[in-house]
């Protein structure tokens, strides 16, 4: 474990033990909080989970009892090896999409079409299965590396006391959205709400994280925090809701040669 | 009366001879009017019919049916503003077809649906890497060696390209990273030891080297999903030019010849084609023509496209060929030398173009991948469904088609044709099985579904337990082992065939209606509207002209312009006739006065002047009609060439062969002389009112 990580883990543990509350924060404190967020989610080893993505659309009849209709749903397995900057998203449901897979190695994202046995490079902004979920929603949290943080103020979100922080992408860094705002639970120090805007400041997506899982990672020798559910509202497209559910999270080490084209291809024979 | 008329005609002929210059001018004008009238109206008639034929026989049919709930008008060739028009849906085409076919004048109903799809493309490196990977999997040693050599050749090209890019790029860090990655791939050991399926090395090439070469722009393809068998039967201009036909119940796509030639062909070949067409067909030389000069200037920039599609052997052969025609490399190194040779070869002017064109197609084109798509290949079409989901469907390219005579037309050749089942899939229409699967997932979901405003309260309000971890720390050992996951059982996304009955029912966006008697469009439309109303089907009908949007309105615009032009010519001619009669009257006051003094009645003078105009008009317009007949007959034999692609659509082919409209030839001279005679009444009345006394006065 690197010294930086030990310090962050200690800070984290102390905060949890003492129940320290975050108040109006200096630039350094804000920076540190974002680093804590990254660190809490960081998994030094491998990561696997089953992800269910549901896309709900607003009904045209505003008086309907259920305001939303389920338009599509996917189930996929997500595998990550953050140490090597690698990620796999492999679809298992619906049947028509089963076997389709994304393989990311550092900056390059490749998509596998099992019906053709062909691979294609995708763009960073590519959405997963055409839903409101994006590849970076399942990726390692790199907020402190990719963004500059600025404290906005203390607020209340439902029953939670939250710190609102604005993040701006660092120059030259390729990110899904250049402007972010986070509402961080002052007690638990987990993100509860995230808003993404375009460079012009136009609000594009709102993500809500109502539940987090905590589990112990042997390789990290510390807890890893994983969101259980993510509610994503597409604010440009009639509040289309994409709900992401993360199940069976597993921090066990994965096969050595898993992050390859051959492995993804082998899954859909 | 009869004697008087004979006298009027006799005197009129005498006057026409006496004032022959004036008479010739008037006859000449009416001859021109008659000539323009006959030729113009004949050509308009032919263009209208040709255009109608182009549209009805290529995609529109006589009538089109689509949803009466459509938000936009149906525009088969795109509206004034290209975009995704909302023309609604026909949820059950079977009921619409059954109603439409009740009408005895309806020959057939062809269901359709069209949209735009994207075609993703990798670069040359991606293609070579895919091929190498395939060969490594199968252990094909010869191909492995060949692909590795190609890769090395491409790396060397990339190295030179990178040197040029580094001079322009501000991102030094990125350029250094590219350079380091490329140097690693160029190490002798890297490719040298790649003789088995080494996934790590291959992934490095896929993710670190191939992206350096950049990505090609995606191609956007318009596609029309239809019942292909019905389409072939009802659109007689449809013709397969390459590949094989799409049989009943087969899934696949037929690429439009025009699309393939203009969008899917290598840019260098397209520039050669463009110049060839303009030089040979429009007869415009390169020098002095802005469009040709631009194309000629663009050609030498395309050397990279040729270079990157060659392997070392082909590059050697090409370099030797270029040497044999006197284009010598300045550099001894193959890539640099060939680059210079190609740049020189691609410099064309009026003196060398025809030769270079032949050499390009004989020596260079066969060594390149000339088209992005060719029959026999499988492509992936991607299209946004109606709900905005990017759907991809793999499709076999069966062949290349065109509409006979409309090969060059951008409008008729804009659509690629696929089966209706594929259209439905890309449109996002779920089949029964998919619907059941989604319903099962909906039942299994425990989602709190509320709108964005209420979500925060529902999820974080009192009673909600969020940030505090809901699961306590637990060791990973208790988790399931991801390694033991079963292999997914893939059902092919879409099978290659479908039961023919599937296209007889289900969803379509619109449908073409072919009539047995095309002249009864209006009546049949009214009858069909009545039938649809009675059956309670929410569909509306438009004729071929309305269905083709702005294109269909073109015929009206052409007609208006021609009628306006004819009107102006006639107006000018009539003013001149009138003026010349008035001036003639003034000059002939003495003569009129004398006639009146010796007993000629006003009516005699009036009749005389009218007779003079009528005879002049008749002679002039008969000459005009004769000339128009000869002219149209000549054009009918030789044909009028279409100078560009839009005109070739109007002509329904590369040449228009006008037909002689005998009714126009017979009637126009009489109409022209009648109009001229009526127009001269005012001037004739003016002459008739000359008083003998005043005429004598004038004499004094």
Top keywords for this entry?
heterodimer, A: 269 residues, 13-stranded antiparallel β-sheet, 4 helices, B: 700 residues, alpha+beta, 6-stranded mixed barrel, 12 strands, extended
Structure description:
The complex is a heterodimer of chains A (269) and B (700). Chain A has 269 residues and is of the alpha+beta class. Helices cover 15% and strands 46% of the residues of chain A. Chain A has helices spanning 3-18, 27-41, 143-146, 261-266; strands at 46-58, 68-81, 86-93, 101-105, 108-113, 118-122, 147-157, 160-169, 179-185, 191-197, 203-217, 222-234, 240-250. In chain A, a hairpin with a 2-residue loop joins strand 7 and strand 8. In chain A, helix 1 (3-18) packs across helix 2 (27-41). Chain B has 700 residues and is α+β, with helices and mostly antiparallel strands. Among the domains of chain B are: 2-54 and 554-693, no CATH class; 122-217, no CATH class; 266-367, no CATH class. Chain B is built from 28 helices and 12 strands. Chain B has helices spanning 2-18, 20-60, 93-100, 124-138, 141-168, 172-186, 188-192, 199-209, 228-234, 257-262, 267-280, 290-298, 303-307, 312-324, 334-345, 353-364, 420-427, 432-444, 452-460, 521-535, 544-547, 549-587, 589-597, 602-638, 645-650, 662-679, 681-688, 692-699, and strands at 63-67, 106-119, 219-226, 238-243, 253-256, 378-384, 390-403, 415-419, 510-515, 539-543, 640-641, 655-656. In chain B, a hairpin with a 5-residue loop joins strand 6 (378-384) and strand 7 (390-403). In chain B, helix 4 packs antiparallel against helix 5 (141-168). Chain B is extended, with a radius of gyration of 37 Å. Chains A and B meet through strand 1, strand 2, strand 3, strand 5 and strand 6 of A and helix 4, helix 8, strand 6, strand 7 and helix 18 of B.
């Amino acid at each position: 474990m690197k010294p930086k990580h030990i310090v962050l883990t200690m800070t984290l543990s102390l905060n949890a033990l003492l129940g320290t509350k975050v108040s109006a924060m200096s630039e350094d404190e804000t920076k540190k909080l974002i680093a804590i967020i990254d660190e809490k989610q960081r998994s030094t080893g491998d990561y696997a989970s089953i992800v269910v993505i549901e896309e709900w659309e607003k009904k045209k009849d505003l008086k309907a009892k259920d305001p939303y209709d389920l338009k599509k749903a996917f189930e996929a397995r997500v595998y990550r090896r953050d140490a090597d900057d690698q990620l796999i998203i492999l679809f298992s449901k619906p049947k028509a999409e089963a076997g389709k897979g994304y393989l990311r190695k550092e900056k390059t994202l490749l998509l596998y079409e099992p019906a053709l046995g062909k691979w294609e490079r995708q763009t960073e902004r590519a959405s997963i299965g055409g839903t409101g979920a994006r590849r970076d929603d399942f990726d390692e949290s790199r907020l402190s590396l990719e963004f500059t943080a600025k404290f906005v103020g203390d607020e209340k979100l439902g029953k939670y006391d939250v710190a609102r922080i604005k993040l701006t992408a660092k120059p030259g860094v390729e990110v899904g959205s250049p402007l972010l705002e986070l509402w961080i639970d002052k007690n638990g120090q987990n993100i509860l709400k995230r808003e993404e805007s375009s460079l012009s400041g136009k609000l594009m997506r709102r993500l809500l994280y109502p539940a987090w899982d905590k589990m112990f990672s042997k390789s990290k020798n510390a807890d890893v925090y994983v969101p259980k559910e993510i509610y994503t509202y597409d604010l440009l497209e009639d509040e289309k809701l994409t709900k992401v559910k993360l199940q069976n999270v597993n921090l066990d080490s994965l096969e050595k040669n898993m992050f390859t084209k051959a492995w993804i291809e082998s899954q859909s024979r | 009366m009869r004697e008087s008329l004979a006298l009027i005609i006799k005197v009129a002929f005498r006057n026409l001879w006496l004032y022959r210059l004036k008479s010739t001018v008037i006859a000449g004008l009416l001859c021109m009017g008659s000539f323009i009238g006959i030729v113009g109206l004949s050509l308009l008639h032919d263009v209208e019919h040709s255009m109608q034929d182009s549209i009805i026989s290529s995609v529109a049919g006589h009538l089109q049916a689509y949803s009466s709930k459509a938000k936009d008008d149906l525009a088969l060739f795109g509206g004034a503003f290209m975009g995704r028009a909302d023309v609604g849906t026909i949820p059950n085409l079977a009921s619409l077809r059954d109603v439409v076919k009740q009408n005895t004048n309806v020959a057939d109903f062809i269901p359709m649906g069209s949209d735009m799809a994207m075609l993703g493309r990798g670069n040359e490196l991606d293609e070579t890497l895919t091929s190498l990977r395939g060969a490594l999997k199968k252990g094909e040693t010869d191909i492995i060696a060949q692909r590795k050599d190609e890769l090395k050749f491409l790396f060397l090209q990339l190295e030179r390209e990178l040197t040029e890019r580094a001079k322009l790029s501000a991102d030094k860090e990125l350029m250094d990273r590219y350079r380091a990655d490329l140097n690693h791939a160029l190490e002798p050991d890297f490719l040298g030891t790649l003789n088995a399926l080494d996934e790590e090395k291959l992934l490095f090439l896929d993710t670190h080297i191939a992206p350096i070469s950049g990505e090609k722009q995606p191609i956007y393809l318009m596609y029309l999903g239809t019942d292909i068998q019905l389409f072939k039967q009802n659109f007689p201009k449809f013709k397969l030019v390459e590949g094989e036909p799409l049989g009943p119940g087969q899934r696949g796509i037929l690429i439009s010849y025009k699309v393939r030639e203009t969008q899917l062909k290598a840019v260098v070949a397209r520039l050669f084609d463009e110049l060839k067409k303009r030089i040979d067909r429009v007869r415009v030389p390169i020098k002095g023509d802005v469009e040709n000069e631009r194309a000629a200037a663009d050609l030498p920039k395309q050397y990279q496209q040729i270079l990157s599609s060659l392997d070392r052997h082909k590059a050697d052969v090409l370099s030797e060929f270029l040497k044999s025609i006197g284009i010598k490399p300045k550099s001894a190194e193959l890539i640099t030398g060939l680059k210079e040779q190609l740049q020189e070869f691609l410099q064309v002017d009026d003196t060398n173009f025809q030769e270079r064109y032949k050499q390009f197609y004989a020596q260079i084109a066969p060594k390149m991948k000339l088209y992005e798509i060719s029959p026999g290949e499988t492509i992936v079409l991607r299209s946004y469904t109606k709900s905005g989901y990017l759907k991809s469907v793999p499709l076999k390219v069966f062949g290349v088609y065109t509409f006979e005579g409309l090969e060059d037309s951008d409008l008729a050749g804009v659509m690629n044709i696929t089966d209706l089942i594929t259209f439905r899939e890309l449109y996002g229409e779920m089949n029964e099985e998919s619907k059941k699967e989604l319903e099962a997932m909906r039942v299994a979901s425990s989602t709190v579904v509320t709108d964005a405003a209420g979500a925060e309260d529902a999820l974080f309000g009192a009673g909600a337990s969020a940030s505090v971890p809901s699961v306590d720390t637990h060791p990973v050992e208790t988790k399931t082992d991801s390694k033991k996951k079963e292999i997914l059982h893939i059902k092919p996304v879409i099978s290659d065939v479908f039961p023919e009955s599937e296209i007889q029912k289900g969803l379509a966006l619109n449908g073409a209606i072919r009539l047995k008697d095309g002249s009864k469009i209006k009546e049949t439309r009214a009858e069909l509207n009545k039938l649809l109303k009675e059956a309670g089907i929410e569909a509306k009908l438009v004729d071929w002209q309305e269905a083709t949007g702005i294109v269909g309105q073109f015929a009206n615009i052409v007609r208006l312009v021609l009628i306006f032009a004819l009107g102006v010519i006639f107006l000018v001619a009539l003013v001149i006739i009138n003026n010349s009669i008035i001036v003639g009257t003034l000059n002939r006051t003495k003569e009129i006065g004398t006639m009146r003094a010796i007993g000629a009645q006003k009516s005699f003078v009036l009749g005389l002047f009218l007779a003079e105009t009528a005879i002049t008009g008749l002679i002039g317009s008969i000459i005009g009609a004769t000339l128009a007949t000869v002219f149209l007959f000549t054009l009918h034999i030789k044909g009028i060439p279409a100078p560009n692609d839009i005109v070739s659509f109007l002509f329904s082919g590369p040449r228009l062969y006008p037909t002689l409209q005998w009714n126009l030839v017979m009637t126009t001279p009489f109409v022209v002389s009648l109009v001229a005679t009526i127009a001269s009444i005012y001037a004739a009345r003016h002459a008739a009112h000359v008083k003998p006394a005043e005429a004598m006065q004038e004499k004094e």
